[in-house]
Design goal:
The complex is a heterodimer of chains A (317) and B (308). Chain A is mainly alpha-helical and 317 residues long. Chain A contains 13 helices and no strands. The N terminus of chain B is likely disordered. Classes of the chains: A mainly alpha (317), B mainly alpha (308).
Chain lengths: 317, 308
Amino acid sequence: MVYYIIRRVLYAIPIALGVSIICFSLVYLGPGDPIQAVMPDEASEAETQRIRVAYGFDKPIPIQYLLWLNRAVQGDFGNSLQHNRPVIAELIPALQNTFRLAVFAATLSFLIAFVAGGIAAYRNGTWIDKSVTAFAITGVSVPHYWVAIILVIIFAVELGMLPAIGMGSGSSRDWAWDLDHVKALVMPVIALSMIPMGIIMRTTRASVLEVLSQDYVETLRSKGLSELNVLRHVIRNASPTVLAVTGLQFGHLLGGSILIETVFVWPGSGLLLNEAIFKRDVPILQGTVLVLAIFFVFVNLIVDIMQTWLDPRIKRG
Amino acid sequence: MVEMKTLDMREGAQGRRQQGEEITVGSLRARSYWMMVWVRLRRDPVSMVCGVILILIALASIFAPWLAPHDPYQTSVFKRLAPIGSPNYLLGADELGRDMLSRLLYGGRVSLFVGLFPVVGALLVGGTAGIAAGFVGGRTNMLIMRLMDVFYAFPSVLLAIAISGALGAGFFNVILSLTLILIPPIARVSESVTTQVRTYDFVEAARASGAGSWTIIRVHVLSNVLGPIFIYATSLMSFSIIVASGLSFLGLGVTPPTADWGLMLSTLRQSIWVNPYVAALPGAMIFITSLCFNLLSDGLRSAMDMRL
């Protein structure tokens, strides 16, 4: 297993490099001279020329990539064009806010989906099972940005219980544990939970059903083990797959929160991306995508290793 | 989302292997196999209802110019945000007083096309790459699949947004970025199914009896891998429609005043304090379409599953 872990970690390196190449090339996808993409419009010719030489934009593309990569691993993603501040200074608080949403959404969906999916499998074929299955397919089919708008219509427009936008009072980007901030958290978290909840429910139901059909469950029951103890075995055997899927969903939540953050004007990495796209702030776009994608590679790595550790039967060659 | 479906599909492929004799259908019995699928599908009321709804939505979009009661671009100051059920304006009007029903009908054209075309494109590119990788194996396989792994290393929605964002807003750019994110999962499934089929005895037998690679691919491989790949592709349609509408919701798709469900949802969002129900309509269309695609795909999957 140690051998597998080492191999898996080593394999993440070329993947991360590939990811960085794609992020690097984002600058070249847009129309026009790439230097224009990373310079403010009002920059003078001399200034542009200075940056062109200083950042190596006059060099061949492979060299440019290496220079860029070298700066990126040191946390230097260039300067934001709209704020003229280092990208990293914008990125860190935004990531913290998104992280908070994703952690709550992943936890909420895991708790509900694991219990509901498990019950559905135990009561296979009954109306409980059918409602859980229907809920799960709704979760994966519904546009979650639309759910967000519906939630706003119900809880902000009609009932006036929750704030429609923002993260607590004013336009503050700092988090605090008070009622205002927690209230602001409710709707984005519910909207974000829809997709992972559906997926985790389906996975839990399928894996618990599979475990229940195994001979050893029959053996456990026939030797007189109480149903509660049987359940312990079932959970132990079904959980590696479910945890792996939950981990991946957490990664997707971090990268896919842009739509929800746009609806709720939540000051996270998604909103940052949205602004970057419409103000053509390429350094922010590039930096945010790179950090989120590298984080996703890392999550994948942890999930794979955890799964091998939880379920030693999985032999990876 | 995509990741999870890949896992599902692998289980499906393994299930099929256990019932190898069912898979070795030649062209003669192939027709009866599809007939069987159709018979099973017809017995599933959910799939049939979803299929009918999807056909109706498609027809309504295609024949929008004849069905729409109003010009979808005709604005009217007096009709602004008219509620649902207003005389002449059955589903109300949007923030510029344009008839919602007409706009929803026209919107389906763009939304369905942008949502579905990438699946077809990715099926062609990713399917070919995956089948080639699986059949040739060795270094070619490694090269293609490792390249796919790099794209897989991105959360799919993030990659679509990043590419669209870098390219700029536009109809073709959305189609391009969606196609790009759908290629890796389809290639992965195609590769694993093809690798599996390649190990079957009948392929070995064909090779031993002197069949060339092309013949084997045409006669033995394609007839066995296309079904599972096709089913997998149908399961991506709902995802593709949601992401396509999401991109245009963000403003990365078609530009106003073009009618498109995602874009309409985004512009009407400003009006939820005035007329919340009209604002919710375009999202409901996206939801119904995507739900029907998912249910139909599930139905097809179980109709084609030999374990039934």
